[in-house]
Protein 1
Amino acid sequence: MSSAVVVEAPGRHRLAAHPPRSPGPGEALVAVHAVGICGSDREVYQGNRPEGYVRYPLTPGHEWSGTVREVGAGVPAALAGRKVVGEGFRNCQVCDRCHAGETTLCTAGYEETGFTQPGAMAATLTLPARLLHVLPDGADLTAAALLEPAACIAAAALKAGARPGERVAVVGTGTLGMLAVQFLRAVSPAQLLVVGAHSDRESLSRRFGATDYRLAHQDLPGDFDVVIEAAGSPSAARTAASLPRRGGRLVLTGIPAPGADGLDPTDLVVRQVEVHTVFGAPPVAWAHAVRMFGAGLLDPLPLVTHELPLTEFARAIELVGAGDPKVGKVLLRPGPEGAP
């Protein structure tokens, strides 16, 4: 019998038997290849995720990749055997926000894979087939496990609307920041600045396309056309807001803890900075991320530093929260082969 991680309550988890659930009408059963762990998974385990955004007991896992093994009635049979990733938000499809394509803002209430619905820290995942995005046959499924955070950054990139020859900047050097660098590099900017907290991320930033690297405490120029904030630290939004030129565009993606430095509305108005925010990824952003990945313009694999079996869930959570700059993306491998 295969296994799944079950978080019974904050701070309590177990490895449980996991019988696959046959797909019903409109559903697909996916064999999970790899599942990523991010800060929100750590919040689930620690019990500090906001009320209404988690439901225990729970199998976590919202960043994943896999292969379709079985489909239910009404789903094209050709989907079986395809490599896929999948959206997490279980939107209603009929409210005004869903009809507008803003599915992460569905007014029917919050439901998401890995938080209120069973997630991918299991050998298989059964979910609505409409949420799946098909990958090229030759896709690297380990790299594809990072397409969920990539889709969130794709949403930011689409809102930023960077054009060739513009000056662009990214604040943050974690997984989201490094993905943002790749999305912005793809539009051929005149300059691509990365602002980080540690100098040891400069080499990777430049590998992904940065032309300049500065530390957050240094003097920073304020003449960028586009700035994407992807750090989520208490001071990141204020730092990012100082970078756009008059009339520039700023996109905020991080969700810092309460008490973060606020933005100065007077400064934003006087400089007429165009401010956008991102919460999750709608279908158009997922499609953009998958296209970028399939075209070879997005390479998440260098961000992966650890691959562990499900049995090491607790260690994986510790690694994510340790603050060690040598720890990048941590993946769990639910399959029988475990970690490579």
Protein 2
Amino acid sequence: MKRELRKAEVLFVVACVAVVSRGGQLGVGIGSAFGTQASFESDQVVLPFANDPGAAAAGIDHVYDDGYNLVDSSGNFGNETTFWGYQNEAQFDAATDTIRMSSTRTLIDTAEDSADRDCLGALELFWLQNFTSNKTFNCGFRLAARWQRVRVAGAAWSGTTAETYTDAYALNGISAPSAPFDGSYGGGIGNPVLGDGPTRSISTAAGSAVMISRTLDGHLLGFDFGPTLSWDLGERMALVASAGGTAMHIHSTFSYDSGGLVAGETTDQEWLFGAYAGADLQCRIGEGWGLFGGVAYTYLEDFNQQADGQRAELVFADSCVLRFGIYTEL
């Protein structure tokens, strides 16, 4: 019984489509999409320390590019530790009787740029139904599904800053051991001690420029729907104009590379809404079929995507599709 009902439902839908489609057209076309614009921008990017010095506080571990000051087996009794080390004699400051240890990290400055506009493929399937049957002008309705590829890429130079944290530790009157020196966790007689409460200073210096490359690669699947006006130009030629609303679903991947220092990517998807207008010139080739060529302009909401402080914006205000294809009369 259920199977018979399903067959009846299918036959009913087919019958309705056949009645409504009488005097209509079904077509498929390919094209090239162009005019999509993009802009990229980024916040300042702070790269992590290779060796993180930690907070400027006593009683905790500190690791540097040129040494270390760690908690020893006594728990740094008396605010001193035997578990420390440094790499070269230049780190000893005789004027302040301290050992200086440093760690440096890189800061990548903000960067903005506009993207290239790539012409990419589009595929469209449409159904057009005329509601009148005049010899010259006819009104109707057009429904289309369109897949479109979008790819925009940009690159901009950005400056970098080297930020150095330098901590000074008091020797408290002992003689600095010759460098390089590595102390002992267990301490004991003969192990020189070093104060564990650092005095911190921070300095910056300009670094080298890096190229920040960013790419947004996406697929759009949309639907156009709106009224049409057809104008017969002769026995075989016709001009068809259409305008209406559009809804587009975008699925995209945004990736970036900051000169090899840091890279990443993210994916996103969203529905965009807007309007379209298009015109096609049709040429009837044979009985019940023909070729067409035309252009479609689409206006959509802007699309924004971000990853790790990097941002991309797509602007469809000047997006167009040049298309051509084949249609059949129903």
Protein 3
Amino acid sequence: MTGYMKLYTALREKITGGVYTSGSRLPSKRQLADESGYSVITVEHAYELLTEEGYVEPRERSGYFVIYKERDAYPVSEGRRERRRAAEPVAVERRDEMERDLFPFSAFARTMRNVLSTYGEKILNPSPNQGCRELREALASYLARSRDMHVPPEGIIIGSGAEYLYGLNVQVLGRDRVYGLENPSYEKIRKVYEASQVEVEMLAMGKEGIESKELARSRASVLHVTPFNSFPSGITASASKRAEYIRWAEERKGFIIEDDFDSEFTLLSKPEDTLFSLAPSGPVIYMNSFSKTIAPSIRVGYLVLPEPMISLYREKVGFYSCTVPVFDQLVLAEFIESGQFERHINRVRRRRRKLEALRKH
């Protein structure tokens, strides 16, 4: 972990742990540099990350102040309850046809040929039920370095797309639960849950995520959220809201399904903290897919399970055969391990940043 990331993590933990409370001023960049032994540039970079993720805000000629309000989020006392202004729907940036020219087709084709020559007849064998170990190991390594999610390969399940994985979650968590969804949200999510014969509650969104009053009144014990980029509102959950979701699930002995599609293409210098990384042994089941990062035709998704739930998933759905061909899994594994996957993501992010800068000017 780089110096600024170590400092960022230490400061974030002090903020969420209450050492620096809401409204308090952080040390000046020079003061913190002297105290920590880091350079002023390193401190500045760490403060920028905290600002991007909504933990602090800079005030001109005054410094950086904490805006994270964990205690005020959930539950909200009647005396302090405020009606947040609902966020206006905004256009969600979606993968554009123009981005296809950035995809490294030659490298992907070379990866396919390498897999054929390296593995030979192995691609004709059935996949292990959770998915090929090569892909699960590649994903575990990628998530550790890119999202600060440290999970064993045994905690990852490979499946053919998000809808299939939604169904696995329902079978494990149960049909007798109420599932809370963002309102508005991607329509297919609701349809899949209703087709799985579970009761769904639609919870109104505010400018930072699901409204606190909606969480308080809901009967749900499973919360399905897309905290990075909720569709169609484009809302990104604030740091305070993410902590509120986790506390909500812990208090109800419930679960969060974190649907993290499209998060790799954030315009920020560092992807937002996942709910899973904030509560690695807690109630969060993380899911993502390659349909946005590579192409919609790549029908491969994955679940990441907290350690306490690995054995439960193995017991409930571990007998299912993996629904992704071995060849596809091995190609993705090598594509990730070679660094081509992350280089592609970085190319798309650079172009999007340039377009955003042009749009603002």
